[in-house]
Design brief:
Distance between the termini: 45 Å
Structural class: alpha+beta
Strand order of the largest sheet: 4-3-5-6-7-8-9
Radius of gyration: 24 Å
Strand content: 5-15%
Helix content: 40-55%
Largest sheet: 7 strands, antiparallel
Length: about 600
């Protein structure tokens, strides 16, 4: 791997391009197992500088609070309550501008590496309302001047809060400066909520399920506020742990560690798989690491919640800091790096400095109800009926159980996206071609498809190709996140951003003919069922087929499936009928 050149698989590119799609995936998946994405060293430096910018920016804007102290005096004021408030607001602003999750080359953003704020400030771009048929004045998929104004209001109100002084109200801490006046939080909370009803993409990018809820918690009295903030953090950890109680997560662990720039020992990476290079199912080593991570996210936050200081708190905090540093060291696709920095700071601030404030001191019944709804009811619904709730508010984080899709463009038709859709930046392929040329650009896009294929859901998507297409080799296959990232300005693993709703918006603008664009959509696995719902949709004619795939059939296959059978067993669903067993028949025009 060079500093500015990617580490790519060493094979004859012309011969590789002549192979069937799944055989093109095979060497790339094998290369990933030892080398990850093959990211140039300069990209990792870019991400490290971004983390430094996030930290220094947060310190600088916080230090500007009147009466707090200079940047050089951080050690004397980092435990002030208003500091945590401003770091939350700074992080929300950082994310909603697009500088956090879903930014840079590891999310197929190259030139420019951050474009979300440019996209959302541009009228005419695509927006996706969450409930267009139920919430008045939210229909349509075209961004208007009103949407741009709402987005600008979110940014402006966040900046206003960052420069706001402290209200010297009753805060039961010696030398405490105070808190932001609660009434000042209303513009940000209101504008974010209104914008979210018009465009769910921006709301998810702002991590509204976490930082939006935290803004509401800031409105309660000090002790209740600290308890509420602690419960939010514990729920995030426990939600992530619960979502990993599945057969998908060991695959994620193997793939994620393979991508770590700090792990250069290839024999160790091979141990993550059952039989590299021909069997890329996760080994017992990956399974053990997955289970240990789940145990840590259950047990350590409980220890933090129940302890009131001393060695137990210190040991638990040390474990959580190491845990999040390990996640950051792997540079996972989607790059939730600053998010993990925020978790580290939150753990030290809430459970370290305020360890003695226990949950039994909670007085406000209104806060209790708010937390029960947002931290229990919504995640429970999202795990039981994942099609109704984004994986983010459902707290199903990096667990491998995501809604996904594959977009299949008949050769030559993908250019319609550039011709008819307003965007702030080119599609990922256009950016890659500018840097590396046509051949390497296509190879790197296939590397992303190989990454997807190594996950359980990717194996299912590949197995559904014969049911969706009459000739796979006549199509250019693109991951749904690639499509959503270019058209919506942002993506972070949310498959509901590239399902039928986005397809309808694309078709409205591009007018694909029958058979020119087909999309395979796979929903997440419900917690209580070992199957996942799929749909195959033609942009021009609508749904072709729907049914279910069983998780057991995904975890037993290779990313490239089998040479003699590129299908996966399904149970199809006819309208108004029960599921029926179906062999892998090709769906023809």
């Amino acid at each position: 791997m060079g500093f500015i050149t990617p580490n790519l698989a060493d094979f004859d590119l012309k011969k590789w391009r002549s192979r069937p799609y799944l055989q093109r995936i095979r060497p790339l998946a094998q290369h990933w197992a030892e080398n990850g994405f093959g990211t140039p060293g300069a990209v990792y430096v870019l991400y490290l500088l971004k983390i430094v910018g996030y930290v220094l920016g947060g310190v600088a804007v916080t230090a500007a609070t009147p009466g707090l102290g200079s940047i050089g005096d951080v050690a004397s004021w980092w435990t002030e309550p208003i500091v945590y408030q401003k770091i939350v607001i700074w992080t929300l602003l950082f994310e909603v501008l697009g500088f956090g999750c879903g930014s840079g080359p590891l999310t197929l953003r190259f030139v420019p590496p951050v474009s979300a704020f440019l996209h959302w400030l541009r009228p005419g771009t695509v927006r996706l309302p969450p409930w267009p048929g139920r919430v008045p004045l939210t229909r349509g998929t075209r961004r208007t001047a009103f949407d741009v104004a709402l987005y600008a209001a979110v940014i402006t109100s966040a900046v206003w809060l960052l420069i706001s002084p402290a209200n010297a109200g009753p805060v039961p801490r010696e030398n405490a400066l105070g808190l932001i006046e609660p009434v000042r939080l209303i513009p940000l909370a209101l504008s974010l909520a209104l914008l979210g009803l018009r465009d769910k993409t921006v709301f998810l990018a702002a991590r509204g399920e976490q930082y939006g809820l935290t803004l509401l918690v800031f409105c309660f009295p000090f002790t209740d506020m600290i308890i509420g903030l602690k419960l939010v953090m514990v729920a995030l950890w426990w939600g992530a742990a619960t979502s990993k109680l599945n057969r998908h997560f060991p695959f994620v662990v193997a793939i994620m560690i393979s991508n770590s720039p700090l792990q250069h020992v290839k024999w160790l990476k091979r141990k993550l798989y059952r039989g590299y290079p021909d069997d890329l199912r996760p080994s017992k080593v990956s399974g053990f690491a997955a289970h240990m991570g789940t145990v840590i996210e259950y047990v350590v936050p409980l220890a933090l919640l129940l302890s009131d200081g001393g060695i137990t708190t210190t040991a638990a905090l040390t474990l959580m800091v190491v845990f999040h540093l390990h996640i950051m060291s792997t540079f996972p696709m989607g790059v939730p790096l600053e998010w993990n920095v925020f978790f580290i700071f939150s753990a030290l601030f809430l459970f370290g400095h305020y360890a003695e404030i226990g949950v039994s001191s909670l007085d406000s019944p209104f806060l209790a109800v708010l937390l029960l709804v947002c931290l229990v009811a919504v995640p429970a619904l999202g795990n039981a009926k994942p099609h109704l709730v984004s994986f983010l508010p459902a707290m199903r984080y990096y667990a491998g159980n995501w809604a996904t899709s594959t977009w299949c463009f008949r050769r030559g038709t993908e250019e319609k996206l550039n011709a008819h859709i307003t965007k702030a930046a080119g599609m990922a392929k256009d950016q890659l071609v500018t840097i590396y040329g046509e051949d390497l650009a296509e190879l790197m896009l296939h590397k992303g498809m190989a990454w997807r294929s190594m996950h359980t859901h990717g194996r299912a998507l590949n197995g559904l190709l014969p049911r969706a297409l009459d000739d796979t080799e006549a199509y250019d296959l693109r991951d749904g996140e690639y499509v959503a990232g270019g058209i919506l300005g942002w993506n972070f693993g949310e498959g509901h951003l590239h399902n039928e709703q986005l397809l309808e918006a694309v078709q409205e603008r591009c007018g694909f003919e029958k058979g020119e664009l087909r999309v395979i959509i796979l929903e997440s696995q419900p917690l209580h069922r070992q199957r996942q719902h799929y749909r195959i949709v033609d942009a021009a004619t609508g749904r072709i087929e729907e049914g279910y795939v069983d998780v057991k059939d995904m975890v037993t296959r290779q990313p490239w499936l089998a040479d003699d059978d590129a299908s996966i067993p399904v149970r199809t669903v006819d309208a108004g009928a029960r599921p029926v067993d179906a062999q892998a028949e090709t769906v023809h025009e």
